[in-house]
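> tool_call: predict_assembly(chains=two)
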Amino acid sequence: MIRVLVAKPGLDGHDRGAKVIARALRDAGMEVIYTGLHQTPEQIADAALQEDVQVVAISVLSGAHPTLVPRIVNLIRQNGQDNVLILLGGIIPEQDVPAMLEAGVAAVFGPGTDTRDIISYITEHLPAA
Amino acid sequence: MSDLGGRVLRRERAGVARALTVVERGGEPGRALLRELFPHTGHAHVVGVTGAPGVGKSTLVDGLALEARRRGRTVGIIAVDPSSPFTGGAILGDRIRMQDSVMDAGVFMRSLASRGQTGGLSRSCSASLEVLDAAGFDLILVETVGAGQSEIEIMALGHTTVVVMAPGLGDDIQAIKAGILEIADVFVVNKADREGADRTVREIRNMLHLAATAPPWPPPIVRTVAQTRQGVPELLDSLDRHQTFLQETGALSSRRIHRTGHLLRQAVTELAERRLQAAMRDADWERILREIVAGRRDPEDVAGAILSGEAPRLTGRKEP
């Protein structure tokens, strides 16, 4: 069973996209833990740890990804979850993508991404248990 | 003791999390881990919290966890949500309303999907309880939507069952009808600041008075406003009193016997199911069915052979 944490860090108040992703992943047979809006990087990493997820899907619309995302990735790795697949969605300008990948994000999915592409990315890149 | 077992006993967060995954997955690794942990269980007070959707169970569990922490206790939480019967997937959203307690190192919260199998939920749930118990959490809260038989089974796993209601949902009496009255040790009327709370309390009280004889533990009715934590300390007091009652009357050990009986039935059913599945995958399955139809074999004998596990290929044709 694939377990995914869908996380909304920071101050932006829109989680429609995150909810669409959550439903699509559920409909693909995955167990999706959704923690709601306004999560701190610490809350996200701790939830990923307690829930023992294989995938963390982060959604950021506010533009705060350059500060938030590397912190989340670092906290998750500090907890010893080295293999967790970290995905990023939302509004991430093209020029920021390399830095996000450099920070440890496996893939960035921009607006308009077909949810089927995300599902197949997850199933193809899932870390071994 | 395995490395993982040791990490559970030391209550390492990552170890507990992984152990829960292992026992939830089941199979031999899960069983082996549970065998190791079992001698270290029996310490926790296990409290089931159930009620219709929207009555405020998660917020209440969050408040109870905070209150128990304030009193110096550690808290494990298991929140069960249904899996989709169509895809097997699930959205587990109980964390949304448990933000205040779950960051505390003395609290561990895990979301559990029902995963659809009959009885399988109570197996994975009781296995999860054992992991949290072995990890030394003082209070374990299990939250489920009170909607059916499997939830009632889960409640049978705990020591104390809290049934949560809220005024104005119109389903209070329905929930009582569904057999929840019998399993409740403590009633909570949440959202007690809303109109209709008095009526809900009265309805529960009337229902309780219908019982022919006074029960040894008359379930208290506690009013709460989970959002503001109002009434939550009193609720925890009620839970403590129920635990004391169980200990003093010896009901705790009879509950443990009851629970063990339940788990044993579960294990037997699962073993039988595995053997049946193996027999059905057998190449001879079709032939055996034809022989039964032709009157050359007796279905009871075949069933016995399958259950005993001695006949994976079910040979030994009966003479006509």
